[in-house]
Amino acid sequence: MLRVVAGLLLLGRTAGGDVAVALGEAPGTRGQYFQNELQGVVDFLADYYNTSFSLTFHGPRAVYTAVAGVEDRVSGRLLAREDLIPLGSATKPFTAAGVLRLAERGALGLGDRVAPYVDPWLRRDLGRTFVELYGAGAANVTILELLKMRGGLQDYDDALYQNKTFRGEEYVPTEVVGDAPHDLHCAPGACGVYSSVGYLLLGLAAATARNLSDWRALDQGALAFGGDPGPGLVFPVRGACADVPGVVHQYATRVGNGTYGWFDVIGDSCLNAWTAGNLAATTQDLARFWHRLFDGTLLSAASLAVMTAFEPLTWGWFPGLEYGAGLMAQAWAAANGTYSLPVLGHGGEDYGSETALNGYVAALNASVVLASTSYDGANCSLSLAENAYAKDFAACFAYDRILHAINPAFPRLRCKPADAAADAAPGRCLGTLGS
Questions:
Q1: Number of domains in the chain
Q2: Which residues in 39-180 belong to E strands, given as ranges?
Q3: Treating both helix axes as pointing N-terminal to C-terminal, what angle do 390-406 and 2-23 enclose, rounded to 10 degrees?
Q4: Residue 247 sits in a domain of what CATH number?
Q5: Residue 426 has what pLDDT?
Q6: What is the span of the domain harbouring residue 208?
Q7: pLDDT tens digits for 42-80?
Q8: 262-291 pLDDT, tens per residue?
Q9: Rounded CA gap, 64 and 328, in Å?
Q10: Cα distances (Å, whole numbers) of residue 80 to 31, 41, 234, 239
């Protein structure tokens, strides 16, 4: 996979020029055809899963965005292009880019041990240092190892913090570190373990490198962009999602007592492990980030090479997934036994919204982002398993339709909703519940 990805990165600009011609990205009938294709994708998905979707394709010369579905179940308001959707771990590429920018300026080193950068925060809030928490074997964990998920750190209990969030509890980043397991899964550098704790620690390290005394003062957008990222990319740090102008209503699944349904979590915290998960974005601004990342605007060629040096995760969540520094390399299986063009990006879920198609397609010199305001489908006429598979099917379906619209010769992807027969009856569907 790594060899294929590297080749596509080198060929991306040439291929992208051909695609620009094929799309007719100057105003005209071909561009309108492509816009109509995107609108058809989100119209179908919004109707099928009874939730709202935003989809952006950012080509070499033009940007296409389509939205569909009800964003607020109470008022009936429809999703708009400018709405901000919380996207969880899609934050990690921004954190990685910000840390790499600090390294480029000499504010920290990628080979530096992380402990001296995070100890002031851990000692102040937890009364213990990084090594006192994780043991002597963690003393040499580096900044680069955390960026690449190679530090050996295990992840925190997401269900615990989901419940805290749903109870309206506020927390600080060091609390997540304190509650996480402190046994290393392996020696630093010896395995690949997906850990949001590592990215939260990178946020603390960045705050130290910026000489900050309050973690909330870290401007995550400016850290990644070197300036104002614009109104379509925000990183909430305190308070409810409802307190952030433009953030959408998000709907989480609740199952119990012989019933199930979906409840609005806009009144809950948007922090979601801070630098590991607090991004709220429009799909067009997120697509713009991918272009600026890969065209060399944000990072040097050397830093981008660090981000795209992929290695497989080996334990925990998604063994085998190719992971770089804040980047995943993903491809979807095609019906003819091949795979789609890879997407270099990062998926993410908040507790009531998600993206599973989010990144840069080097062979097209294009980026594509699909986001939903419910991480499950919310359709009582579908089985619970089909609703739970919504993000996976929607990502595959949207990418397949986009590739086929660009070139009908691209192999069709194998996009199949979950098998409804495998769904255990959860009880009576109540539809949308109160917050």
A1: 1
A2: 53-58, 63-68, 85-86
A3: 60
A4: 3.40.710.10
A5: 67
A6: 2-433
A7: 999 999 999 999 999 999 989 999 999 999 999 999 999
A8: 999 999 999 999 999 999 999 999 999 999
A9: 24
A10: 21, 16, 17, 23
Under 8 Å CB-to-CB from 344, ≥6 apart: which residues? 5, 9, 294, 308, 324, 327, 328, 329, 359, 360, 361, 362
Cα of 175 vs its chain's centroid, Å: 22
Element (H, E) at 430: strand 428-433
**How is residue 385 written in tokens?**
């398993």
State the DSSP H helix or E strand holding residue 17, giving kind and residue range, or none if neither. Answer: helix 2-23
Nearest to 353 by CA among 268, 411, 295: 268
SS3 content of the chain, % helix, strand, coil (to 5): 40, 20, 40
3 state DSSP class of 174: helix
**Where do the H-state alpha helices sit in 213-332?**
220-225, 283-294, 301-307
Q: 343 is written with which tokens?
A: 């997407």
Average of pLDDT values for 349-373?
A: 97
pTM above 0.85, yes or no: yes
Q: How far apart are CA 131 and CA 224, in angstroms?
A: 29
Partnered with residue 251 across adjacent β-strands are 264, 374
What is the CB neighbour count within 10 angstroms for residue 108?
A: 21
Q: What is the CA radius of gyration of the chain?
A: 21
What would the two tokens of residue 261 be?
């349904």
Residue in 185, 103, 193, 97 with CA at minimum distance from that of residue 146? 193
C-alpha span between 175 and 169 (Å, rounded): 12
- According to DSSP, residue 90 is labeled G
Buried b (16+ CB within 10 A) or exposed e, 274-304: bbbbbbbbbbbbbbbbbbbbbeeebbeeebb
Given CA atoms 208, 209, 213, 218 in this order, what sign does their dihedral have? Answer: negative
Model pLDDT for residues 168-215, shown as the tens digit of each residue: 899 999 999 999 999 999 999 999 999 999 999 999 999 999 999 999
Give the torsion through C-alpha atoms of 4, 399, 406, 59, to 10 deg: -80
